[in-house]
Amino acid sequence: ADDSGDEEEDDDDDDEEEDARRTASGAVATVAQVDGWFDAALSRGDVDAAKSIVRAFRAACYHGDDMDKRGEEALKVAITTSTVFTRVMTRSLTQMHSVFAKVFATGGQQGKKGKKGKGSASEGDAELPLEPERHSRWKKTVSPLAKSFISSAVHALEQMTDEAMLAFTLRALGRLAPLMRTNERLARKAMTQALSAWGRADGKHARHCAWELLHALALRMPKGYFPKVLKGMSSAYAAGAKAATPTDAERVAFQRECLVALCGEDLDAAYAQAFAGLRDSATQLRTALQGRQQADARLAQGWKTVATLELWAQAVCAYPDESELGQLAYPLCQILTGITKLQPSMQRWPLRLRVAATLAELEDATRSYIPLAAPLVEILTSARWRRPAKDDGGAGGQGGGILKAFEHQLLAPKSLCDSRSYQEEAVLRTLTLLSRHLAHWSYHIAFPELVLAPMAELRRFAKSCPVERFRRNATSLAAAVDESAAAVRARRGKASFAPKDTKQVEAFEEEGRQLAVAGGKKGKPSAVHAFYVQFKQAAEQRKAAATMEEVEVGGGSSRAERRAGMQAEGGAWGGGGVDSDDEEASEDEDMSDDGEDFEENEVLEFEGDDDAEVEEEAPRDSKKAKKAKRKVAAAAGVDVKGLVSSLREEESGDLLEDMDFDSMFDVAEEGGAAAKAGAAKTSKQKKAKREAAKGAAKDAGKRKKQRR
């Protein structure tokens, strides 16, 4: 009888413990209850319903976690099925900003003394106020709910690995950015998770949504928070800026566009951040130039430094005015030029050409002269051309490797440097950039004097280079430069002003550009500019062909077929396979005599060319017009907001279809069970240690007594 009584007492104790556990975990939520809470909160701004939603969302985010160890009070809502879990997560992340907006709109006054705050939402709006802390409902009603909801969402972000769920949650936090204004610690946690997703190697949707959150934090937080977001994004960009594959290059380009767009929101903070970045790069360059250690040179010529310089170069190109970021152009050019002088070897030609392309962009945007010809001519005058190149066995096996070396590497492999394909690509890219640089200044009044030094080296290369095709290209470029210089001399002979008359000098250059745009009998593009346009088209075709060769597995044409294709592309390749000097002379004569036919074919390309520095508007007559024109030109390359908004509709549908909250619920259940088992095991181990310690103490006491 006593045994049966003891068993009944044990059963009663178990029932009491189970009831206590259920009471502590809260009432079990259902799908109907969740829908009812949202209907009440969205229809009439019910605060109690909003509190229930926040509790349910917190229970979902912390599902499976041991809340007692966090020092928090027990949750008042329990979620036991995956259906309820999915409904709570989906509706909370898509509609919680509307719930908070409705709570703001249905009660209290906005601002002090009954006045509406700046950017506040009206009765029918579903938007949050830009300054919620000025609302009478903020401190006691909305602030605790917002803090609980956002902290729960950030905790969920820390546990997520799926791209769709990451993007879904990040977008929801982006809508709630105004509610983090008074809690910088919470905003910092959200920014940390957003930076982690923004710098992911994979996951395009997550990167886009992370950019939305970062942009919202930069604009919606108090003024002093913008530099922190900009610094965090700059550090994350530099840490993962290695563009070793086309996918990495696409990601880095998107991150760079995001940063440039963010710089436009606060140019003062952008200037300070850019100055700090350039100072660090200059310090690394000075250490590498003064020291003899290879590690310093590799650091100064590494991806982190080069990507940082490309970032701020693009920012200066987007905002080139002196009142914006234009004052950084000079130190930026000095650092970029110094990098090309560290290790002038064949393996570093991809880096040199990459830096030269960046300098060409700066030159076009700032309308400032940059001595770009010197580092380019050094490639043509290298001692490597005195030795014969090795046959690479055709383009089928090297086309993709050559493209990768020049597009996605800063240091080419030694085995690739001696191949004909590598040298051919280097020469053609060098001539393209050199012709672009010369075309930019082909209308300037001092153009004949600017080209004296580079043309001497170019003619020397044309005479000494053992490759006939390269000699043809160099000779054609030299002839185009001579023709452009002669045209400038003819116009300059009619000028009646002195070099000190800067306004008239600028008008001289602008007049030449306008005549080139007009075309017809009045004028035409300069010969060197026409050469650049034609050479650029051939370079694009060459790049497309190399890409196709990389995609085709086991395919590829022979070297003879590739040469035939080059010759069929036109004059940019220097003509056919005839090697006589008479053919070179006739080719140069054809280029200069057939001006009218060439003009009809090339003026349209000239007007639509983005890289050519040709102004189609009227001459600049005021600083306001100058700044407005430049901002219009910059907006085309910094349209990240348009890019993200264009993808938002299709992303929303895809993300909702890809949501797998059921698996997240199962993982949380398994984690909770594992955590409980681990906690039980840990408690047993601690208990055993305590008992062992007590036994050891007793034994020590006995031995002490025995010694006495």
Considering the chains and any ligands shown, give keywords for the structure.
708 residues, two-stranded parallel sheet, disordered N terminus, mainly alpha, single chain, 30 helices
Describe the structure.
This protein is mostly helical and 708 residues long. Helix content is 71%, strand content 1%. It has 30 helices and two strands. The protein has a two-stranded parallel sheet. Mean pLDDT is 74; it is low at 1-10, 12-25, 68-73, 108-125, 393-397, 551-638 and 649-653.
Poorly predicted ranges? 1-10, 12-25, 68-73, 108-125, 393-397, 551-638, 649-653
- pLDDT average, as an integer? 74
Biggest β-sheet strands, sense, barrel: 2 strands, parallel
Could you tell me how far the N terminus lies from the C terminus, measured between alpha carbons in angstroms?
52 Å
Structural Rg: 34 Å
Q: Describe the oligomeric state of these chains in a short phrase.
A: single chain
Strand arrangement, largest sheet? 1-2
Instruction: Note the overall shape.
Output: elongated
Specify the helix fraction band: over 70%
Number of helices: 30
Specify the structural class. mainly alpha
Give the amount of beta strand, in percent: under 5%
Task: Give the strand tally.
Answer: 2
Topology:
Blueprint: H1 2-25, E1 27-28, H2 31-44, H3 47-61, E2 77-78, H4 82-105, H5 138-159, H6 163-175, H7 184-198, H8 204-220, H9 226-239, H10 246-263, H11 267-290, H12 294-300, H13 303-318, H14 329-340, H15 349-366, H16 373-380, H17 395-408, H18 414-417, H19 420-440, H20 447-450, H21 452-464, H22 468-493, H23 502-518, H24 527-551, H25 559-568, H26 581-593, H27 595-608, H28 623-635, H29 640-658, H30 661-707
Parallel strand pairs: 1-2
Helix pairs in contact: 2-3, 2-4, 3-4, 3-5, 4-6, 4-30, 5-6, 5-7, 6-8, 6-29, 7-8, 7-9, 8-9, 9-10, 9-13, 10-13, 11-12, 11-13, 11-14, 13-14, 13-15, 14-15, 15-19, 16-19, 16-21, 17-19, 17-24, 19-22, 19-24, 21-22, 22-24, 22-26, 24-27
